[in-house]
């Protein structure tokens, strides 16, 4: 083993330590939801005692205790900041987090493995908010999210429509000429198909764009790059080989921010869902209500629900606090099956 090999191993370990440290801080912040106060002396003493007894080999007990004392001090500082927590699907650096940071930069971002975890964590009160992608200009509807929206009791309190710009990332110092494989989510790989082909790279599917970037930072595989957000480069200490590698300039994703209660602000757009079966004219009767009221519909999408039935998602301009809109909602509620307003909100376009 040479010096460069040892340093590479150290870089891998450092990346994992930083990732785990951030995760520990996130968990510590969430414990505040279940405590009456920030300071729990008996718990702190128990943790430090365990660390002291577990310190062997090269790590002296005092060194370990000093480190963990500082970590717990920082955990308490973060808890005292009273940050609102916001859940997103994927690893840190995911496009959902990029969107969340544009809307709520002061929130504490919490990664979730699945979309369902985002919904469940907000519904249980563990997270204050959740953010999920609902549609993409190239990939269409995000099926799993829309399927959950049919039945959730959460409310949409904000929306953001933003461009998705992919970057090719690799570990610092890697020889670009030796790149042979590229890791990323299947949708990102499809959106960069021409770039991948031109550069003779072999696409390898990964569960998440940011997850691919994180894995490369932690494992440092040779000849491998990741397609992910530019934010991932800063987050994981990766080098940007090339930006904006997506095949289409019109690659945009729309996200919903979810909460337990409606937004206190007066929105300018509303979202709703209802069921349409095989009864003739059932969809037309609903749309006619909005047409007669001169309310502009901005989205109409259908998602298979149960056999023979579809869930119809609609977005329309206006606020539910407006008398004309409120009256239209009342009329549609009586005409449509399982009609539900998902929320009225303001939408941001970047």
Structural description of this entry:
The structure is a single chain. The chain has 350 residues and is α/β, with parallel strands linked by helices. It has four domains: 3-80, Up-down Bundle (Chorismate Mutase Domain, subunit A), CATH 1.20.59; 84-164 and 251-261, Periplasmic binding protein-like II (D-Maltodextrin-Binding Protein, domain 2, 3-Layer(aba) Sandwich); 167-242, D-Maltodextrin-Binding Protein, domain 2 (3-Layer(aba) Sandwich); 263-350, Alpha-Beta Plaits, CATH 3.30.70. Helices cover 41% and strands 27% of the residues. It contains twelve helices and 15 strands. The chain has helices at 3-31, 41-54, 61-80, 95-103, 115-123, 143-149, 186-191, 193-198, 209-219, 230-236, 282-292, 323-335, and strands spanning 85-89, 108-112, 129-136, 140-141, 155-163, 167-170, 181-184, 202-205, 224-228, 239-242, 252-259, 269-276, 297-304, 310-317, 337-349. The strands form two sheets. Strands 1, 2, 3, 4, 5, 11, 12, 13, 14 and 15 form a ten-stranded mixed beta sheet that branches. β1 (85-89), α4 and β2 (108-112) form a beta-alpha-beta unit. α1 crosses α3.
Instruction: Give the total of domains.
Output: 4
Give the termini distance in whole angstroms: 49 Å
Give the helix proportion (percent range).
Answer: 40-55%
Q: Report the CATH architecture of the largest domain.
A: 3-Layer(aba) Sandwich
CATH class term of the largest domain: Alpha Beta
| Poorly predicted ranges | none
What average pLDDT do the residues reach?
91
Number of helices: 12
Shape: flat
Estimate the strand proportion: 25-35%
- Characterize the main sheet: 10 strands, mixed
How many DSSP-defined strands? Answer: 15
The ordered string of helix (H) and strand (E) elements is: HHHEHEHEEHEEEHHEHEHEEEHEEHE
Radius of gyration, in angstroms, nearest whole number: 24 Å
Q: What is the fold-level CATH name, i.e. the topology of the largest domain?
A: D-Maltodextrin-Binding Protein, domain 2
The class by helix and strand makeup works out as: alpha/beta
């Amino acid at each position: 083993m040479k010096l460069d090999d040892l340093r590479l191993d150290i870089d891998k370990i450092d990346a994992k330590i930083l990732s785990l440290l951030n995760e520990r801080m996130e968990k510590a912040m969430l414990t505040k939801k279940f405590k009456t106060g920030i300071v729990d002396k008996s718990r702190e003493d128990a943790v430090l005692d365990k660390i002291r007894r577990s310190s062997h080999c090269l790590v002296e007990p005092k060194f370990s205790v000093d480190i963990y004392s500082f970590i717990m001090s920082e955990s308490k500082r973060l808890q005292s900041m009273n940050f609102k927590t916001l859940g997103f699907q994927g690893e840190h650096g995911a496009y959902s987090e990029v969107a969340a940071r544009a809307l709520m930069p002061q929130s504490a971002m919490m990664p979730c493995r699945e979309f369902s975890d985002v919904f469940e964590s907000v519904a249980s009160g563990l997270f204050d908010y959740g953010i999920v992608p609902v549609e993409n200009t190239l990939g269409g509807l995000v099926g799993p999210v829309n399927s959950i929206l049919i039945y959730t009791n959460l409310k949409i309190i904000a929306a953001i429509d933003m461009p998705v710009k992919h970057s090719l990332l690799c570990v610092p110092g890697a020889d670009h000429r030796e790149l042979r494989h590229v890791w990323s989510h299947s949708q990102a790989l499809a959106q960069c198909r021409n770039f991948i082909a031109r550069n003779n790279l072999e696409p390898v599917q990964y569960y998440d764009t940011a997850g691919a970037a994180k894995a490369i930072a932690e494992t440092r595989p040779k000849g491998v790059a990741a397609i992910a957000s530019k934010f991932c480069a800063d987050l994981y200490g990766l080098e940007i080989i090339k930006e904006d590698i997506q095949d289409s300039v019109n690659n945009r994703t729309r996200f919903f921010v979810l909460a337990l209660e409606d937004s206190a602000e007066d929105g300018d757009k509303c979202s709703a869902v209802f069921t349409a079966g095989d009864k003739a004219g059932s969809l037309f009767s609903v749309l006619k209500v909005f047409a007669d009221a001169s309310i502009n519909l901005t989205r109409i999408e259908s998602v298979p629900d149960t056999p023979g039935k579809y869930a119809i998602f609609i977005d329309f301009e206006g606020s539910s606090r407006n008398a004309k809109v409120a009256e239209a909602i009342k009329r549609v509620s009586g005409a449509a099956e399982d009609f539900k307003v998902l929320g009225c909100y303001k939408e941001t376009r970047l």
